Amino acid sequence: MITIRRASSTDAGRLTQIAAASKRHWGYPENWIQLWLPELTFSSSYILENEVWLAAIDEMLVGFYSFKKDSECWWLENLWVVPDHMGRGIGRKLFQHALGRCRISGESVLKIEADPNAQGFYEKMGACKIGEHRYEFDGKLRVLPLMEIRTKFAC
């Protein structure tokens, strides 16, 4: 059974392991992983300063998500699932929990800057692509879909 709980500062190391393993799952070159490692590293202060929620199966952490807020809305900053547990409904459960947290907070829109490999997942969850973020990364053009979902109804 999957349980979801608020992350504590002692979970920081495991969050980092989950995020790095999940990113590696998509076959990115290792030098890219190393460049991303600062973004994939979670500190106890990050957990204390942000809303971070974990998915566990029998006390084993298998995924998590976190939000960031700006002046307009909430952004799903992270949603990671351990590769061995992908395809088992954990990502869906975490995403639905995130939507519930938005509703409780009165937010009507959740935005996502998605990894291209995750776009299909977010579309299945009801999110719509609203644009793209284009930037150069390690000498290559990288295009990330910008997506959003209404927390009270799908777009």
What report would you give on this structure?
The structure is a single chain. The protein has 155 residues and is α+β, with helices and mostly antiparallel strands. The chain has one domain: Gcn5-related N-acetyltransferase (GNAT) (Aminopeptidase, 3-Layer(aba) Sandwich). It is 34% helix and 35% strand. It is built from five helices and seven strands; from the N terminus they run βαααβββαβαββ. A seven-stranded mixed beta sheet has the order 1-2-3-4-5-7-6. β4 (74-81), α4 and β5 (109-113) form a beta-alpha-beta unit. α1 runs antiparallel to α2. The longest helix has 16 residues, at 90-105.
Pick out the low-confidence regions: none
Major sheet description: 7 strands, mixed
Our measurement of the CA-to-CA distance between the termini, rounded to an integer number of angstroms, reads 31 Å
Shape: globular
Question: What does the secondary structure layout of this molecule look like, with pairings?
Answer:
Elements: E1 2-6, H1 12-25, H2 30-40, H3 44-49, E2 52-57, E3 60-69, E4 74-81, H4 90-105, E5 109-113, H5 119-124, E6 128-137, E7 140-150
Parallel strand pairs: 4-5
Antiparallel strand pairs: 1-2, 2-3, 3-4, 5-7, 6-7
Helix pairs in contact: 1-2
Describe the structure in brief.
This protein has 155 residues and is α+β, with helices and mostly antiparallel strands. It has a single domain (2-150), classed as Aminopeptidase, CATH 3.40.630. It has helices spanning 12-25, 30-40, 44-49, 90-105, 119-124; strands at 2-6, 52-57, 60-69, 74-81, 109-113, 128-137, 140-150.
